[in-house]
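Table 4 source record.
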Amino acid sequence: MQGLNLDDIKRENKSSVLYLLNSFPRLSRKDIARRLELTPAAVTKICAGLIKDGFISEQGEIDETVAKAGRKKVSLSLCLNSFYAMGINAQVDKVTVCAVRLDGTLVKSSDVSTESSVDEIIEESKMIFETCGVDKSRFLCVSICVMGSAEGNRFGLWNIDEIKRKAKSSLGLPAVAENNIRSFALAEMIYGDAKPESAVLFLKWGPGIGSAIASDGRIVAGNDAGVAEIGHYIIRKDGVKCRCGRYGCLETEVSSMALMKETGKATLDEVTGSNEPDVVNLMDIKIDMVALALTNTATILDAKNIVLFGSVFKNSSVAQKLTRQCLRYNVNFSKDIIKLSKLNDKISYIGAAALAAKHFFFEKQN
């Protein structure tokens, strides 16, 4: 049996400290040691290194109600606002190129066509990088959020290896890629309200429809046509061909393009905001399709939280109707289990910030 690697243990302990401070800001070294069951000496050494690297900072003495003799506790906080990333976020209808701060703040962005070549995307990234007004040394990486798998590029826009290589060459930064839905789910775990200790199911409904799953604070599944991928559940045996190659997938029935085509409306807002009886009835049918897929998946997973996001949910009535249908199909659900993400208006960039934070802040390898 191979022994434990000391470097791996050190990295894991550093990550544990950072993730803990993300969940519980302004903890003391003693509090961290107690919560992580590490020795005070080990935590002191870890924190010294993280302070030196600029990842955490001291925030002053903790005001304790009961005065205690001895050394005062000094609180520690993350320095996510000191680091930045370049983001390339692909969705069905557009690609957003952006500079983001690792606390989830957008610095500068522009949208380009999904028809853009890799070289055009990189040129736009370089322009944002050069004009965003941030010291280049504060950037940690390029985060690339893709449609489909970040490894095989089966349904994506670009060759993933090519865009990572060209991003690194042009911007002088390491590049990391991930599925866009998984990236948003990761953002929800870092910046949002998802409870990391339980199974969480994420549902995106917009230009396309997709899902991701998290357990014990980690994204464990969710890729285009992958494990528990709601968008590619077959729900109509005589349905049209999907981009995944199968027929009758949920995405072909409920994507924004499908909704606009069936209703004859020019925009998604016109569809979801319409009071026309025929349009309302059609939307109710589509919501029911999604509710069935969502309820079945959540039941199998025993999901304790369901997080909704995507452009369809900009109309709050859609989320409300979907929730009612899910509760009707599974009476064991509580209405509190299903929530609309507070990050829903940040879809175009928040996943890029989270992806960078995960790989180059919370789980930095050296």
